[in-house]
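Please fill in the sequence for the structure shown.

STRUCTURE ENCODING:
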């Protein structure tokens, strides 16, 4: 029985990183006329109110999209993502100057995809899938949402008929087996659709599986990958809660590393909550380095030949949360 509901976290710093990169990846696919498929294995509800008791419980959006919404020096690359959030607020009839709603990944894809593109969503939570299906109901030819296990169902849509596609794998990690299943699912997906683009979201939390995850993803048989993390604060003393997140991307747009190098320092300054705020950027081959950017960690250079040499930081807290945010 799943209890995670994304409505509690919609628009937080992790959504900002994930959805900003999602917009960049969709924009890249839109450059060619040929249709693409967007597959969302863990789709959520697609649309979230930010003025209801769920979102307001911890008001996580205030330290996420709320800070970008009010920013006066938004970098152009991020402006495109914020424009999608504004357009969603406008389209739903609310005061466009006020941030009241937040678009999840299927909604962002709906806003950007063209008539020829397809959106395929999977969602296991029994009530979230109903909301998702309702939210996608206007355009059944373009978008469908299937109830079930996204890890298992992904194989059913690979490779997409057009052989162009982006798969977002964004589990809640409520189940600790999700960490292992992400890797297995990706390994299988690459045998079916090696040229596809994949984006995997993962949490920075004080649990062993989460800390081991990036290094294990780097060992997947993918020639071209990028791994970006945004840490917004020091881990809490009790080891609970999310202090940052990462996105592991296979076959990224060739422009993405440079865009991230430019914009991540701004995101660190804007979303950072204490002196531990930082970003890292690693790529499979080319160095992704911009030394001396304020408030950032130096990005790591990685050799083209894979090596499991880097080990993650030791686990600090043996008692760990079962959910992304308790
Ligand atoms: C982080 S949320 C998704 C957010 C969404 N991708 C977005 O960016 O707007 C994760 C979702 O995965 C769902 N979920 C958990 N386990 C799943 C599974 N095995 N298959 C499909 N969905 C699952 C949860 O119910 C939750 O709605």
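FILLED IN BY: designer on duty
SEQUENCE:
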């Amino acid at each position: 029985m799943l209890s995670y509901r994304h409505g509690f976290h919609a628009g937080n710093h992790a959504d900002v990183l994930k959805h900003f990169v999602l917009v960049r990846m969709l924009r890249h696919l839109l450059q060619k006329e040929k249709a693409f498929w967007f597959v969302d294995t863990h789709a959520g509800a697609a649309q979230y109110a930010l003025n209801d008791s769920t979102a307001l419980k911890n008001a996580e959006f205030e330290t996420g999209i709320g800070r970008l919404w009010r920013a006066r020096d938004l970098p152009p690359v991020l402006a495109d993502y914020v424009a999608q959030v504004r357009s969603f607020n406008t389209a739903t009839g609310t005061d466009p100057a006020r941030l009241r709603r937040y678009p999840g990944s299927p909604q962002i894809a709906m806003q950007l995809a063209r008539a020829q593109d397809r959106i395929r969503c999977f969602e296991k939570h029994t009530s979230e899938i109903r909301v998702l299906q309702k939210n996608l109901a206007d355009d059944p030819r373009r978008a469908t949402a299937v109830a079930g296990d996204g890890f298992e169902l992904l194989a059913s849509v690979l490779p997409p008929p057009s052989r162009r596609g982006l798969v977002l794998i964004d589990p809640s990690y409520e189940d600790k087996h999700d960490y292992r299943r992400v890797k297995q699912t990706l390994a299988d997906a690459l045998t079916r659709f090696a040229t596809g683009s994949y984006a995997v979201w993962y949490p920075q939390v004080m649990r062993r599986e989460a800390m081991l995850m990036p290094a294990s993803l780097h060992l997947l048989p993918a020639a071209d990958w990028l791994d970006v993390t945004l840490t917004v604060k020091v881990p809490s003393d009790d080891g609970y809660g999310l202090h940052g997140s990462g996105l592991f991307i296979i076959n990224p747009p060739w422009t993405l590393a440079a865009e991230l190098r430019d914009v991540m320092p701004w995101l660190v300054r804007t979303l950072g909550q204490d002196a531990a705020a930082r970003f890292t950027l690693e790529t499979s081959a080319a160095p992704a380095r911009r030394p001396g950017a304020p408030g950032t960690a130096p990005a790591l250079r990685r050799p083209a030949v894979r090596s499991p040499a880097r080990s993650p930081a030791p686990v600090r807290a043996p008692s760990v949360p079962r959910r992304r945010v308790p």
